Amino acid sequence: MEIMRKKGSIQDMVFIPIVILVLGIVSIAAFMAMSKINDQMQSMDSLSGTTKHIMDQNTKNMPGTFDAVFALSMFLLTLMAIISGFFIRTHPAFFLVSIFLLAMIAGANAILSNAFESFTNDSEIVTYSADFPMTTSLMGKYPIIILVLSILLAIFLYSRGGEI
């Protein structure tokens, strides 16, 4: 099993930001869709009051739940990258290459952060994204968070000094 032997690397810093961005956008889009479905269901006379109440409660609980899932996912993916980075054996000679890659990753993450901000500032979506305070706050600081994570990962990758 090749996947079982996979260890952390600087490539995790390309994978993690994309997963986090997609999770943030999907969470807000899902809440927007659920809100619209809830509005339609509330206007249906054929549904019972219990059904309408359950749907309304689920719609109201969704942003808090998804917001917490987003923050937890970001934390756990960060922790996974740092821990797995500690177990990979790398030679310090590749440190300069990693610094160059980190600079490129920082630039790409600024673009991803701007894409998320553009998405959440859309006139139709802004009312829904306001219900996700942790997600919007973390994504606003996204480039800095990923840069710090990248530096920590580089430190863990190269701290073992050429053990092979």
Tag the structure with descriptive keywords.
6 helices, 164 residues, mainly alpha, single chain
Verbal overview:
This protein is mostly helical and 164 residues long. It has one domain (9-158). It is built from six helices and no strands. Helix 2 (49-87) packs parallel to helix 6 (142-158). It is elongated and about 70 Å long. It starts with 11 loop residues before the first helix and ends in a 6-residue tail after the last helix. The model has no long low-confidence stretch (mean pLDDT 83).
SSE blueprint and pairings:
Blueprint: H1 12-42, H2 49-87, H3 95-120, H4 126-129, H5 133-140, H6 142-158
Helix pairs in contact: 1-2, 1-3, 2-5, 2-6, 3-6
Task: Please provide a brief summary of the model.
The protein is built from 6 helices and no strands.
SSE string: HHHHHH
| Cα-based radius of gyration, to the nearest Å | 20 Å
Largest sheet: none
The structural domain count equals 1
Number of helical regions: 6
Taken from the alpha-carbon principal axes, the silhouette is: elongated
| Unreliable stretches covering 5 or more consecutive residues | none
Query: What helical percentage do the residues reach?
Result: over 70%
Q: Briefly note the structural class of the backbone.
A: mainly alpha
Measured between the Cα atoms of the first and last residue, the distance is 22 Å
Average pLDDT over all residues: 83
Total beta-strand segments: 0
Strand fraction equals under 5%
